[in-house]
């Protein structure tokens, strides 16, 4: 499908999750493992279209995979009730440990690995939609777990930036998610799913840009990672704040707020988001030493530029203009 749809059908195939509100407003969530793609799309106030694989045509979006795959470490019935309740007969758990002498899973046990998982049919989500079809998306979220504390918890992207960040597919790996990782590592996976894509990433990015402009789609970059410093120094952004930011974007509650341009990444940072402390919105303000923030941000920008060097021959100027700049 990732080969046929873009070439023969001129439709965008996507490694993403998708849900839809009661007003028929569809949202798409792109993100690599550990960024919150499954968690944020499993919203009890919205119907779930699908968890992982979708197509986007001029008529709407559709799921072509039919299941869900979520991280299970520290799973909490209050924070993630839909995933918690989906783990029943017919679901699979991986790398998890039982409470001694019982068949009850201890989701807090990371003695084997932090990378515990669950897989279940989409029908285990009570508000999943059948058939799995959605309207034309109005909102797209790019999710990243930035372990360096550089990217804002929420920022708005213009079409050039959206295509650039889509091709980049940035997140960071931290200790516990994979063997041998002790310090945060920059990770790029084109279109947030490079392993699944047989075509050049610029093909998918060009289709995304075309659809964005054609249907006037808002694109937001959401950092579900760290703030106030890098991993080990700063703190993970609370899930409750991330949900509040996603809901505010979906409900248009930031349409009339002022924005500040990030000096390096040029993305737009809102001055206000309901349900979120304003001092959290600009990441530099959360660091004890602003100079250390600037240095870390410059290092991350260079990593983006070095990764993107392999696409410069295929990427048009419009996409190249969406990248970070160190002239600040």
Automatic annotation (TrEMBL):
GO terms for cellular component: cytosol. Gene3D superfamilies: 3.90.228.20. GO terms for molecular function: ATP binding; phosphoenolpyruvate carboxykinase (ATP) activity. One of its GO terms (biological process) is gluconeogenesis. The lineage of its organism: Bacteria, Pseudomonadati, Bacteroidota, Cytophagia, Cytophagales. This is Phosphoenolpyruvate carboxykinase (ATP). Keywords: Decarboxylase, Lyase. InterPro entries: PEP_carboxykinase_ATP, PEP_carboxykinase_C, PEPCK_ATP_CS. It holds the Pfam family PEPCK_ATP. The keyword Transcription regulation does not apply.
């Amino acid at each position: 499908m990732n080969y046929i749809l873009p070439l023969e059908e001129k439709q965008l195939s996507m490694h993403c999750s998708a849900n839809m509100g009661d007003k028929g407003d569809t949202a798409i969530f792109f993100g690599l493992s550990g960024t919150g793609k499954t968690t944020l799309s499993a919203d009890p106030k919205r119907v779930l279209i699908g968890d992982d694989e979708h197509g986007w045509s001029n008529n709407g979006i559709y799921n072509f995979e039919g299941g869900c795959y979520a991280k299970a470490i520290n799973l909490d019935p209050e924070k993630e009730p839909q995933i918690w309740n989906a783990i029943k007969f017919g679901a699979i758990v991986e790398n998890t440990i039982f409470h001694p002498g019982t068949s009850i899973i201890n989701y807090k046990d990371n003695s084997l690995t932090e990378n515990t998982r669950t897989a279940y049919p989409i029908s285990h989500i009570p508000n999943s939609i059948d058939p799995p079809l959605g309207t034309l998306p109005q909102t797209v979220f790019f999710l990243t777990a930035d372990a360096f504390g550089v990217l804002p918890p929420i920022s708005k992207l213009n079409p050039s930036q959206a295509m650039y960040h889509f091709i980049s597919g940035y997140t960071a790996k931290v200790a516990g998610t994979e063997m041998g990782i002790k310090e945060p590592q920059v990770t790029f996976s084109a279109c947030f799913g490079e392993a699944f894509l047989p075509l050049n990433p610029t093909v998918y990015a060009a289709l995304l840009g075309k659809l964005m402009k054609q249907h006037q789609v808002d694109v937001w970059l959401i950092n579900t990672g760290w703030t106030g410093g890098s991993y080990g120094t700063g703190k993970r952004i609370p899930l409750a704040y991330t949900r509040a930011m996603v809901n505010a974007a979906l409900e248009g509650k930031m349409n009339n707020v002022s924005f500040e341009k990030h000096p390096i990444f040029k993305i737009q940072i809102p001055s206000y988001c309901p349900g979120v402390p304003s001092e959290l919105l600009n990441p530099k303000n959360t660091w004890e030493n602003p100079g250390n923030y600037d240095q870390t941000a410059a290092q991350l920008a260079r990593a983006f530029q070095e990764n993107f060097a392999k696409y410069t021959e295929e990427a048009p100027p419009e996409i190249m203009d969406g990248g970070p700049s160190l002239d600040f």
